[in-house]
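Dear colleague,

Thank you for sharing your sequence with our group. We've completed the structure prediction you requested, and as agreed, I am returning the results in plain text so they can be pasted directly into your records. Please verify that the sequence below matches your submission; if there's any discrepancy, let me know and we will rerun it promptly.
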Amino acid sequence: MSYTSPSRGDVHVNAPLTNLSIAYLQSANNFVASRVFPNIPVAKQSDAYFIYDRGEFNRDEMKERLPGTESAGGSYDIGNETYYARTRALHKDIPDQVRSNADSPIQLDREATEYVTHKGLINRESLWASNFFIPGDPGDVWTFVLDGATARSPNVDPTNGTSNNIVYWNDAASTPIEDIRTMKRYVLESTGFRPNILTFGRVTYDTVIDHPDIVGRMDRGQTTGPAIANQEALAALFEVDEILIMDGIKNTTAEGQTASHEFIGGKHALLSYRPITPGLLTPSAGYTFSWTGYLGAGSDGMRIKRFRLENLASDRVEIEMSYDQKLISKDLGAFFDNIVQ
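Please find the predicted structure tokens below.
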């Protein structure tokens, strides 16, 4: 086997293209994974973080103090979990013949950067959805789960996989406002934190905004103009800080086959807690640990390289994204499974 010394292009991270990709990431609102699980920049690819027992924090242990006596004591145990920011990569080559024939050759680098970034967003969203926006019995992923069904269970219990059916939200007889309020109460009572983020699959959101109960609340008896249910109005109605809609799509067929596109978010919804200021000592339903210590990586653990492949007479634009999406507290999320037909 022969070896060659690496050139500058082999080891150089292209800062302008990385900055362009970061800007693209920040404006790609179709993808919500890093907004549900907020970003935590980390210097190391793997490390440990602390976890706490909420029960220790919520127990009432204060006692009356008599003169000359000690105060009552309290303590809590600290555990730890680990993250590992795996690196995923993709490239697009720009042949010299294509570059020479282009009206604006530098635009090819931009287009290649946007292409690989878009692919990275699809991959990150799909990974998050396949792990945390999925059907399952209570406790598999989230502590509280309600399933869509044609009829409501006699005694709905979102912690019990055998009696947690509620009516599909596309049924006029369903009660989405009450269902979401009930799940908020369960999470708050269990953790002391009120869920403040509501994430919908696109199909679920489109169904909810047309529900007669929602339209009725928005109408408020007005006599002129339409009653409009948008994300901001819906967030106020459900008393959450933000409504997120999973508009990201992906082609589920292999190359060469007829394309089959579908929404990544399916027909589900997730009610969860996200802190205003993310931090290692701050509770959250989940976090995205992004490896910023990787040479040239941005705050999302992403970097763009551009280097020469003389054997292919091409320039290669390559993206690497290094992150780990971690469920921090399953008690801080309530999942609505297949909630519309």
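Summary note from our side: Confidence is low (pLDDT under 50) at residues 1-10.

Kind regards,
the structure core
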